[in-house]
Amino acid sequence: MPCCLQRQPTMTNYKSRSRFYDPSRKSAKVNFIVCVVAFGLFSGAAWHSLTSTLDQQQRIHCEQGWQPACESLK
User: Fold this and answer.
1) Which whole number is the average pLDDT over 39-49?
2) DSSP state of 20
3) Counts of helices then strands in the chain (DSSP H, E)
4) pTM for the complete prediction?
């Protein structure tokens, strides 16, 4: 039989090999905490990258002589 026609394993027989995090074996409380922590870390990283990029852009514009950029840095 060609390899593309072979029967694929079903998800009911699937067993996670990861010991780090297996959501089917954890309680709803642990799953919620993991989601909140992951969301918080992602949000913090996005906020830091956006604000640092904006500050850097304003400094460059101020050095180029744009008066509104210099006023916003004060």
Assistant:
1) 96
2) S
3) 2, 0
4) 0.52
